[in-house]
Design brief:
The complex is a heterodimer of chains A (114) and B (119).
Chain A lengths: L2 E3 L4 E5 L4 E3 L2 E3 L4 E8 L5 E7 L5 E3 L5 E5 L4 E6 L8 E9 L7 E2 L3 E6 L1
Parallel strand pairs in A: 2-12
Antiparallel strand pairs in A: 1-4, 3-9, 5-6, 5-10, 7-8, 8-9, 10-11, 10-12
Chain B lengths: L3 E4 L2 E4 L5 E7 L6 E7 L5 E8 L5 E2 L8 E7 L2 E6 L8 E8 L11 E2 L3 E5 L1
Classes of the chains: A mainly beta (114), B mainly beta (119).
């Protein structure tokens, strides 16, 4: 079984400040990792994904994440946030072979303060 | 590209009625679609995996007779909430994987969700 933990339910940050949203996962097999963003009353939009290769992954809207296998983490970062980044962010994991089920974390609400 | 259309976006209906939600992949084909339920301020919970031309696979605890899923074509899956009650009120989201993505666990493409409110 696999699981995802997002320790921070809410992260307030001032505009133009850097931010890190934490994600830790647990799995007995190799994994693929994803970060999604959800705006109010909308579905999910993919920010970035890690499948293999370079552990530093760059995504849309200036976000990036680093896969750390030893720490089983996949933290999301942005060097300078904007008001428009205010949203809910979900980390997700799936095993790298076989069944396609994706497990989502509980989400982190990023609130950018003007 | 990779647009998933979900309809309707919002439904308000009386207790006891059945509600059908459609999920369409507009510019790609999907042999597999997923239905999620999201409670306020919570994560997405997978309800079932919809397979084109065969029966859906339901997650543990999800009532098959309550949540009927039909995946009749490579671009359309429907979720019908039968005899809906207030406790079924929730945000339902579908997603789909492009058939061209093969066996790799490429990201799913999500619809914008349906807000279901049962009075």
């Amino acid at each position: 079984a696999q699981s995802v933990t997002q320790l921070d339910s809410q992260v307030p940050v001032f505009e133009e400040a850097p931010v890190e949203l934490r994600c830790n996962y647990s799995s007995s097999v190799s994994v693929y990792l994803f970060w999604y963003v959800q705006y109010p009353n909308q579905g999910l939009q993919l920010l970035l994904k890690y499948l293999s290769g370079s552990t530093l992954v760059k995504g849309i809207n200036g976000f990036e994440a680093e896969f750390n296998k030893s720490q089983t983490s996949f933290h999301l970062r942005k060097p300078s946030v904007h008001i428009s980044d205010t949203a809910e962010y979900f980390c997700a994991v799936t095993n790298s072979g076989g069944y396609q089920k994706v497990t989502f974390g509980t989400g982190t609400k990023l609130q950018v303060i003007p | 590209g990779a647009v998933v259309s979900q309809h309707p976006s919002r439904v308000i209906c009386k207790s006891g009625t059945s509600v059908k939600i459609e999920c369409r992949s507009l510019d790609f084909q999907a042999t597999t679609m997923f239905w999620y339920r999201q409670f306020p301020k919570q994560s997405l919970m997978l309800m079932a995996t919809s397979n084109e031309g065969s029966k859906a696979t339901y997650e543990q605890g999800v009532e098959k007779d309550k949540f009927l899923i039909n995946h009749a074509s490579l671009t359309l899956s429907t979720l019908t909430v039968t005899s809906a009650h207030p406790e079924d009120s929730s945000f339902y989201i579908c997603s789909a994987r492009d058939i061209k993505d093969g066996t790799l666990n490429q990201p799913q493409h999500f619809g914008d969700g349906t807000r279901l409110s049962i009075l």
